[in-house]
Design a protein that fits this description.
The protein is an alpha/beta fold. The chain has three domains: 190 residues, FAD/NAD(P)-binding domain; 121 residues, FAD/NAD(P)-binding domain; 81 residues, no CATH class. It contains nine helices and 26 strands. Strands 1, 2, 3, 4, 5, 6 and 18 form a seven-stranded mixed beta sheet that branches. A hairpin with a 2-residue loop joins β12 and β13. It starts with a strand and ends in a 7-residue tail after the last helix.
């Protein structure tokens, strides 16, 4: 049995950042990373963004390479099947065992799937292998159907239409982004996709699909069918909590950890997409975004190596498509009351949670009022994230009067 002082299950961005965090405090301890995928950690956001839109950002720039640290060993194609907490060891599907002094669960998420098998023309987009498949398929005016209107789906559709593809984007919302963005921003986003030549099938879901003769045919919920040269699914993700749950660790949307990112087992930590943690501003929180992977990964590494810190960072999330760029913190839910402070293509949008019933709509002559639970920053070159955090941290109710001009539009 191989044994490591620090054993990390999951070979994504959290793992790479955790190695850096460990090395800030411990230059000697042995580190092992067990990754289910065939290759090591990459900067995952680039797979649907910069690799398609920035000609100066090459494929060689995505690799994080924590294994270059002389005390770190990366094991790829290694899926852990069980944790023995008493013996402090894990077992892999092929029967190998690895012991640990401290264990970090950074298993991330898996994409939501339909009953349509993956192939060269059908992918549930998540990994660098999915990117490689799509790169081989893209171009030459081929028709690619993208299913899902959230981050991955919308970003892939934008990327493909700029890389010599015909693109159809299928999303369940009547207006692209309408479940999350303020109506005026969602309308602008929707129209921008149309203006760039993306065919939008909004208000539609995929019920089934089949592949034959180099064509994938999708059956939609209205009874119609769509044929394409390839299909990329971006239906969202689910945290990979099965391993932790089987080991008796508490699950609440993700693996439940305290402010030091530790589970109920003092030797086991969790971080990144798979963790549910107490955010100092937002309360119990679960963040599936790169800022959290970077900051939480580094923090948990330092903590495992002896730091007495707690994780106090409130992460942001973002998207860049065509000429629309935004960053946000907290809850973006368009069913909440939204206070807009905007001019031209730049704006700050505050999402308010009030005590009123959802059916009790705000009268036109009365200001919406409530605690700010989300902030959307649209069109900033340097988004004022700390200012948004200050607003989110205030416990009392706000309205358009108190929020107007609170964050400068520059």
């Amino acid at each position: 049995m191989q044994r490591y002082d620090y054993l990390i299950v999951g070979a994504g961005m959290v793992a790479a950042n955790a190695v850096d965090g460990i090395r800030e405090r411990d230059s000697e301890g042995s580190i092992g990373i067990l990754g289910a995928e065939p290759r090591g950690p990459v900067t995952r956001p680039a797979l649907s963004k910069k690799l398609w839109t920035d000609p100066e950002f090459g494929y060689d720039k995505i690799w994080m390479q924590p294994e270059q640290d002389p005390g770190t060993t990366l094991h790829v194609d290694t899926r852990v099947s069980a944790i023995d907490r008493q013996a402090r060891k894990v077992t892999t599907r092929n029967g190998e065992t690895f012991g640990y002094g401290q264990l970090l669960l950074a298993t991330g998420c898996d994409p939501i799937r339909l009953d349509l098998a993956e192939s060269e023309r059908v992918r549930y987009f998540r990994s660098v292998d999915d990117y490689d498949h799509l790169r081989r398929l893209a171009g030459e005016n081929r028709h690619i159907a993208v299913v899902g209107g959230s981050y991955i789906g919308s970003e892939l559709a934008a990327a493909l239409i700029q890389n010599d593809c015909r693109v159809t984007l299928i999303c369940p919302e009547p207006v692209l982004g309408g479940g999350m963005l303020p109506p005026e921003v969602a309308d602008r986003l929707h129209q921008t996709y149309l203006d760039h030549g993306v065919a939008l099938l909004s208000g539609r879901k995929v019920k089934a699909g089949r592949e034959a003769d180099s064509t994938v045919t999708l059956e939609l919920d209205d009874g119609s069918e769509l044929a394409a040269d390839g299909v990329m699914f971006g239906l969202g993700v689910e945290p990979c909590t099965e391993l932790a749950q089987a080991a008796g660790l508490e699950i609440d949307g993700g693996i439940l950890v305290d402010e030091r990112l530790r589970t109920a087992d003092a030797a086991i930590y969790a971080a990144g997409d798979v963790a549910t943690y107490p955010d100092r501003i937002l309360g119990r929180w679960h963040a599936e975004h790169v800022d959290n992977a970077n900051c939480q990964g580094a923090a948990v590494g330092r903590i495992m190596a002896g730091s007495d810190e707690t994780y106090t960072h409130t992460p942001y999330f973002y998207s860049n498509v065509f000429d629309i760029a935004w960053k946000a913190l907290g809850r973006l839910d368009s069913t909440l009351d939204i206070v807009a402070d905007s001019h031209a293509d730049k704006g700050v949008y505050y999402y308010l949670e009030s005590d009123r019933l959802e059916s009790d709509r705000v009268e036109p002559d009365r200001l919406a009022s409530g605690r700010v639970v989300g902030v959307l920053l649209l069109g900033f070159d340097e988004a004022p994230l700390d200012a948004a955090r200050e607003v989110l941290a205030e416990p009392g109710p706000q309205d358009a009067t108190t929020l107007s001009g609170r964050i400068s539009l520059g």
